[in-house]
């Protein structure tokens, strides 16, 4: 089943959000307009707006209010992506040239700051201070997650806890906040809001672990970037942590990372092949499935409606996604 | 509190708010523009929550200044420099988050909106100025002034001090040019100098650039001196500061000093 099919009944509202996104980033400044539009047109799953809309359906659903939350969160996600591409020096995202590749780093920085400002301006139309406190905290945690990723690069003495804390900040919190803020925008009960937050958190954790698995199992064509790219950049993800239980793989990586400057695709290839020969991918998938299971469980207390069914289907899709 | 003490008090508060262990270990402490702090202090002098406005605005300013330090492309070989650049991107993002969190905790959503509008205007103006060739420095500085004052103007508007915006713009430019001239004399490098060299003074020698900078300080002083419109009382501090600078500064052009003597 295609992901979009799981929430086809909100398609009209998602289209409205797409229009809001385009309108919001409009500017007479040609370069910023073109760069922002390129980013917007590059697509993406729009998962965060989907979560906001579905979560809001457990309360007083008002699209005019909810769309402000949904579009702001997507814009914040976009702003972070354009800065991420500068950090990773990436020329390609989702198979298309990045802003920094089409222009340069400085334009990418300005585009990110511009989109961030537009997102905040839009979000201030939500007059609930708690919503702002949640979003602010999420943004800080997101950045701290990225800082920790740089801190932990090439560090092979990491453990499961370090990894989980990092992906919680880097990915899970923005998804859980999307669910929570959707609930707040629709004035749901606190209990419902908490259940949706937990669902988003577990989904986000599973989503990132799957992403880290696909980085090893996907092809360059599927990923839109070289396979094994995370390890090439020194990022130690869950499959690597498990694979390092194999003494030889750990030794290979220690040798390789002794001089990180010399690590390249060719030198890494045999290590990646060895990792794929272990059961590391399977073990990582077990952890991802555990989070998915917790995500399903979080929905149990919620009313059995179309939105809940969609959230279950999304969890199902994320758990089985190939890309 | 005397102005130096005040500046130090705010600097400490800002640094305390933006401290993040790993960034602190790996990056230099960000440079806080004292003259902007001073202008904010003047504008908010009648406000009960003045600390809150000054600290949050300066943190946004720091965030955007930090992102100006990113090179147009990353150095390919120098891993240490690459890491520094990566952390600089994140430092700017982190400061942006802190400004938002400070105001969200204080439930001051209208000021979040006001500063977001300032960020928006500033980034648009930067995208224009940074990628434009200017025929002369005066036109360049007219446009550059809008970058320097984008946030402060929003604060002025927020407190209904629009009448002082034009004067403050000239004052800010005067302080900025003074600072840049001082850096120049002390062989300090700056982003502003690079901009001048690349966007205005192509093929210009260092001496020519210095003299150009100097003449612009002179011109800005004249503009401030000739400013006739009535200003809100909040701007008295800026006027007094300017007069003090004129009396005590040793970098003013001879012509200005002579004219100063004539006018007495």
UniProtKB/TrEMBL annotation, chain A:
List GO BP terms, alphabetically: isoprenoid biosynthetic process
Cofactor(s) recorded for this entry are: Mg(2+)
Q: Which GO terms describe its molecular function?
A: heptaprenyl diphosphate synthase activity; metal ion binding
Its EC number is: 2.5.1.30
Taxonomy, superkingdom = Bacteria
Q: SUPFAM superfamilies from the xrefs?
A: Terpenoid synthases
Q: What class of enzyme is it?
A: transferase
Gene3D superfamilies, from UniProt? Farnesyl Diphosphate Synthase
Q: List the catalysed reactions.
A: 4 isopentenyl diphosphate + (2E,6E)-farnesyl diphosphate = all-trans-heptaprenyl diphosphate + 4 diphosphate
**Could you tell me the keywords of this UniProt record?**
Magnesium, Metal-binding, Transferase
User: Would you indicate the residue range of the signal peptide?
Assistant: none
Checking InterPro entries in the record gives: GerC3_HepT, Isoprenoid_synthase_dom_sf, Polyprenyl_synt, Polyprenyl_synt_CS
Subunit structure as annotated in this protein's UniProt entry: Heterodimer of component I and II.
Which family is it part of? Belongs to the FPP/GGPP synthase family.
Protein purpose:
Supplies heptaprenyl diphosphate, the precursor for the side chain of the isoprenoid quinone menaquinone-7 (MQ-7).
What is this protein identified as? Heptaprenyl diphosphate synthase component 2
Which source organism does the UniProt entry give? Gracilibacillus oryzae
Automatic annotation (TrEMBL), chain B:
Example GO biological process:
menaquinone biosynthetic process
Enumerate the Pfam families for this protein.
HEPPP_synt_1
Matching entries from InterPro entries are given as: HEPPP_synth_su1
Q: What is this protein called?
A: Heptaprenyl diphosphate synthase
Q: Which organism is it from?
A: Gracilibacillus oryzae
């Amino acid at each position: 089943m295609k992901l979009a099919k799981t929430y086809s009944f909100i398609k009209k509202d998602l289209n409205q959000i797409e229009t809001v996104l385009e309108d919001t980033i409009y500017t007479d400044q040609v370069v910023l307009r073109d760069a922002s539009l390129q980013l917007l047109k590059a697509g993406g799953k729009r998962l965060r707006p989907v979560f906001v809309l579905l979560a809001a359906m457990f309360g007083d659903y008002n699209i005019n209010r909810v769309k402000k939350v949904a579009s702001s969160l997507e814009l914040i996600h976009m702003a972070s992506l354009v800065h991420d591409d500068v950090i990773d020096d990436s020329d390609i995202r989702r198979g298309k040239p990045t802003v920094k590749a089409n222009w340069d780093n400085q334009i990418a920085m300005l585009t990110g700051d511009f989109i961030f400002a537009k997102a905040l301006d839009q979000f201030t139309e939500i007059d609930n201070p708690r919503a702002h406190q949640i979003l602010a905290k999420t943004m800080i945690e997101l950045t701290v997650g990225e800082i920790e990723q740089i801190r932990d690069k090439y560090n092979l003495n990491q453990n499961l806890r370090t990894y989980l804390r990092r992906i919680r900040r880097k990915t899970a919190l923005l998804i859980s906040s999307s669910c929570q803020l959707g609930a707040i925008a629709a004035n749901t009960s606190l209990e419902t809001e908490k259940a949706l937050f937990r669902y988003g958190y577990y989904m986000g954790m599973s989503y990132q672990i799957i992403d880290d698995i696909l980085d090893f199992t996907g092809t360059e064509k599927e990923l839109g970037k070289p396979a094994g790219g995370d390890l090439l950049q020194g990022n130690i993800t869950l499959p690597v942590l498990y694979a390092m239980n194999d003494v030889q793989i750990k030794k290979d990586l220690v040798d390789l990372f002794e001089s990180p400057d010399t690590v390249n695709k060719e030198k890494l290839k045999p290590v990646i092949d060895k990792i794929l020969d272990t059961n590391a991918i399977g073990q990582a998938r077990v952890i991802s499935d555990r989070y998915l299971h917790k995500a399903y469980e979080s929905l149990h207390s919620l009313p059995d409606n179309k939105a809940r069914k969609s959230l279950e289907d999304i969890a199902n899709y994320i758990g089985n996604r190939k890309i | 509190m005397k102005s130096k003490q005040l500046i130090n008090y705010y600097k400490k508060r800002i640094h305390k708010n933006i401290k993040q262990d790993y960034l602190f270990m790996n990056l230099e402490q960000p440079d806080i523009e004292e003259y902007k702090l001073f202008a904010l202090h003047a504008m908010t002098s009648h406000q009960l929550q003045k600390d809150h406005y000054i600290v949050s605005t300066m943190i946004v300013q720091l965030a955007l200044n930090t992102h100006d330090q990113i090179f147009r492309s990353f150095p390919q070989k120098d891993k240490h420099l690459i890491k520094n650049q990566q952390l600089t991107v994140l430092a700017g993002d982190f400061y942006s988050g802190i400004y938002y969190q400070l105001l969200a905790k204080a439930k001051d959503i209208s000021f979040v909106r006001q500063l977001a509008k300032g960020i928006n205007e500033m980034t648009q103006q930067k995208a224009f100025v940074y990628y434009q060739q200017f025929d002369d420095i005066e036109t360049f500085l007219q446009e550059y002034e809008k970058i320097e004052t984008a946030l402060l103007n929003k604060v002025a508007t927020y407190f209904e001090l629009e009448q002082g915006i034009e004067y403050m713009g000239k004052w800010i430019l005067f302080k900025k040019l003074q600072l840049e001239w001082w850096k120049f004399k002390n062989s300090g490098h700056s982003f502003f100098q690079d901009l001048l060299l690349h966007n205005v003074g192509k093929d210009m020698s260092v001496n020519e650039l210095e003299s150009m900078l100097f003449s612009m300080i002179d011109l800005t002083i004249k503009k401030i001196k000739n400013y006739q419109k009535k200003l809100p009382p909040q701007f008295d501090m800026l006027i007094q500061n300017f007069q003090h600078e004129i009396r005590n500064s040793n970098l003013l052009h001879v012509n200005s000093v002579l004219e100063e003597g004539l006018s007495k």
